[in-house]
């Protein structure tokens, strides 16, 4: 077997080596960080499609029924009414003329401000030039020089082109490209290259190699938990040593199943994803462009055999191809101004959830403050004619009836509960408990603490308190609960029962 391998030419050797490597043995491992980067943009594109549709209407609004008819073209997966009501910070429903039928939809002021900021970025000269360069490099890939316009339409979101780029961007760069075909012609419209640019026909890999003066090798990043066996690692190391063929060269003459052809297809796919501002796109877009370039099968093979370069995410109901080196965990390494704008749109989409939490916390704090102010307040009338001067004065005035009703001899369990409630309210408001009565003793003649009448009154009061505590202790003892832990035991027992019931279910 070894002598047979030595007798084969170099190219045939690599082709035979590929047959020894089983692609099906590669076990893909999910990357949660990159999946999150894909998932957070799930409804962003259909939302912006609907935003653009409403913006260019003369009335800046549309009936909900007409939006439902264009659901597929907008890319809305759910019912349009549910989609619109899911983002009240972006869309508003209203009834024109005050009639409660045929609801219309318009944009909120917040989304209009972001749209104006995004429009300013699209209109800047730097962004126009960068977008034209990316589109020109796309036409120069594999020297195809012409791409069907419907494929470019599918890629305009990922390339960072305006939605009407054929009317705005293409006419401004007539020396770059032009639209041909269509308008009654037999051929479909195409975007065609006008002038080749040697300055732009340099790949990202070639630029990095020139800057670092190192051999061209693709950076590899594997998902956590991915097992790289010796056989696969050896194959990758030999594959990295193969000569690098520029993606702006046409290498269709290479044998389709050779390692050299595989590396050229990887370089084309790698450069394509680098042209995209998000460094990712839908797999169907990759395969359609690969079919146009004659590399559809090679693109499929590249995605399967190189999990360290490309990642395939199955989030948001589709398959997304991501360039691994473009991300550090779930964040883009090279951020684009339009990607910053998309981040602002996503924040606005989720603003309503944050507002609900904030609103709930504010209402809860407001209720606590109202309860606190109800029991205190400087120079404020209390419910039963009480007045409080404030924390510094520490003087409290009560009516005569309150003093008589508030005697220690008539102190009952109901008063005790009321006193506990007042103390809890005061604790919330950072106040000390309201003291009962400084003027209470002024209603009666002062007596010496050693007098006989004073001793008798204290004994009577102590007996009443002891008897009341004894009764309360007896009640708690009958119920099988220790004094001072009544409410805690009730709550703990109830939570345990609820937990057991949930487990049984």
UniProtKB/TrEMBL annotation:
Protein name per UniProt: Uncharacterized protein
Per the record, the domain of life is Eukaryota
């Amino acid at each position: 077997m070894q002598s047979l391998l030595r007798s084969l030419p170099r190219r045939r050797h690599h082709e035979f080596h590929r047959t020894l490597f089983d692609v099906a043995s590669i076990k893909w491992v999910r990357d949660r960080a990159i999946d999150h980067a894909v998932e957070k943009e799930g409804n962003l594109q259909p939302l912006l499609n609907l935003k653009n549709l409403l913006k260019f209407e003369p009335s800046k609004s549309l009936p909900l029924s007409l939006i439902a008819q264009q659901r597929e073209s907008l890319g809305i997966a759910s019912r349009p009414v549910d989609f619109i009501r899911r983002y009240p910070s972006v869309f508003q429903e209203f009834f024109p003329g005050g009639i409660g039928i045929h609801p219309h939809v318009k944009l909120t002021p917040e989304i209009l401000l972001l749209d104006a900021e995004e429009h300013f970025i699209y209109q800047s000269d730097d962004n126009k030039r960068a977008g034209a360069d990316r589109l020109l490099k796309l036409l120069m890939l594999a020297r195809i020089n012409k791409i069907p316009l419907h494929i470019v339409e599918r890629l305009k979101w990922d390339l960072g082109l305006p939605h009407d780029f054929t009317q705005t961007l293409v006419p401004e760069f007539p020396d770059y490209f032009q639209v041909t075909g269509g308008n009654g012609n037999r051929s479909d419209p195409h975007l065609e290259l006008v002038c080749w640019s040697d300055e732009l026909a340099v790949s990202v890999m070639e630029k990095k190699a020139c800057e670092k003066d190192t051999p061209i090798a693709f950076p590899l990043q594997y998902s956590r938990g991915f097992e790289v066996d010796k056989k696969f690692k050896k194959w990758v190391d030999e594959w990295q040593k193969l000569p690098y063929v520029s993606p702006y060269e046409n290498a269709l003459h290479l044998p389709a199943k050779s390692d050299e052809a595989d590396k050229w297809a990887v370089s084309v796919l790698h450069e394509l994803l680098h042209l995209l501002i998000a460094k990712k796109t839908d797999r169907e877009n990759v395969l359609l462009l690969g079919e146009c370039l004659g590399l559809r099968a090679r693109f499929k093979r590249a995605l399967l055999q190189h999990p360290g370069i490309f990642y395939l995410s199955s989030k948001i109901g589709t398959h997304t191809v991501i360039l691994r080196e473009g991300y550090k965990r779930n964040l883009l390494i090279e951020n684009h101004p339009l990607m910053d704008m998309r981040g602002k749109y996503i924040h606005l989409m989720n603003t309503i959830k944050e507002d609900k939490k904030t609103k709930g916390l504010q209402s809860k704090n407001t209720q606590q403050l109202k309860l606190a102010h109800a029991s205190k307040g400087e120079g404020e009338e209390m419910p039963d004619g009480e007045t409080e001067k404030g924390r510094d004065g520490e003087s409290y005035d009560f009516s005569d009836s309150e003093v008589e009703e508030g005697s220690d001899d008539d102190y009952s369990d109901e008063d005790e509960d009321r006193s506990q409630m007042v103390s809890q309210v005061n604790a919330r408001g950072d106040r000390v408990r309201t003291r009962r009565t400084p003027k209470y003793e002024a209603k009666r003649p002062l007596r010496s603490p050693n007098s006989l009448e004073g001793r008798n009154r204290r004994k009577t009061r102590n007996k009443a308190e002891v008897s009341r505590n004894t009764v309360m202790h007896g009640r708690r003892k009958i119920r099988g609960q220790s004094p001072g832990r009544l409410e805690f035991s009730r709550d703990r027992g109830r939570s345990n029962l609820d937990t057991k019931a949930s487990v049984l279910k």
